[in-house]
């Protein structure tokens, strides 16, 4: 439970969300959104390089 609270606090600080905005978001949608890295850390499609 502490991990969820820590993630909630960090997300609200990073995105300037209210608690209502955070807790109304679907959990799986939230984790998918937070898992996206910045453009430099993403894997590159080998076909796009060619």
Write a concise keyword list for the protein shown above.
50 residues; mainly alpha; 4 helices; elongated; 66% helix
**N-to-C span:** 46 Å
What is the overall silhouette?
elongated
Uncertain parts = none
Number of strands: 0
From the alpha-carbon coordinates, what is the Rg to the nearest angstrom? 15 Å
The chain-level structural class is mainly alpha
User: Count of DSSP helices?
Assistant: 4
What does this structure look like?
With 50 residues, the chain is mainly alpha-helical. Helices cover 66% and strands 0% of the residues. It is built from four helices and no strands. It has helices at residues 2-15, 19-24, 27-35, 46-49. The longest helix has 14 residues, at 2-15.
Topology:
Layout: H1 2-15, H2 19-24, H3 27-35, H4 46-49
Provide a concise account of the structure shown.
The chain has 50 residues and is mostly helical.
